[in-house]
Amino acid sequence: MVSRPPRHSLDVLPGTRPGPFSRPAPSRRSVGPAPPLRLRTPSAADHLTGRRLDGIRRQRGRDDGVQHPARGRQVVHGHGRPSLNGFLHAAALVGTADVEVAKFAELAIGWFLPAVVGASAVAQAPRLDKGDYPGEQGTMEMNLNALEHITRTSEERNVSSDQPRLMKELAERAIAEGYGGQNYLAVFELLKRPTPSS
Predict the structure, then answer these.
(1) Which of 26, 44, 27, 48 is nearest to 35 (CA)?
(2) Which of 177, 171, 178, 183 is closest to 134 using CA atoms?
(3) Which of 16, 24, 57, 189 is at 20 to 30 A from 30, Cα to Cα?
(4) Sign of CA dihedral 39, 41, 44, 49
């Protein structure tokens, strides 16, 4: 019989027992510091000024609400803050196991966000346009279990559980609306609508 780690342990942190689903960190050769933002490049400048988004609007031949550079900046910066908050929360959580933020950043920012999150988002973007969220490799219900685990672990480690709780509630809403068997990207359908009034 395979022994399993404690239900709510941070079993992937240094100094704790590795669980059956944990993966070893990449070698130091594959993990480097996050590249600096180079505002001198046309691509970065376009994103930060909104010209790229405004160009997309013109190419599609319709007014999709991105008419002014300031709105473009709001769109880009608006999605950056939740990403940053996710990193900050994760850093606070692993900090309870004496992991330095600088070391954690090498893995989270230098590898995980661009290689896993970023690559996956780009690959799945066409499915978002089609409203297609197949759950063969992971369902909303599976993701809810993970978010419940992160929320409980945050509480047990005495760090803020606000962010994982918000994501957990979003997953719960998605399941209640019938997306339980689809993958986590189905929360996109909720995010496209106004927040229900309480």
Answers:
(1) 44
(2) 183
(3) 16
(4) positive
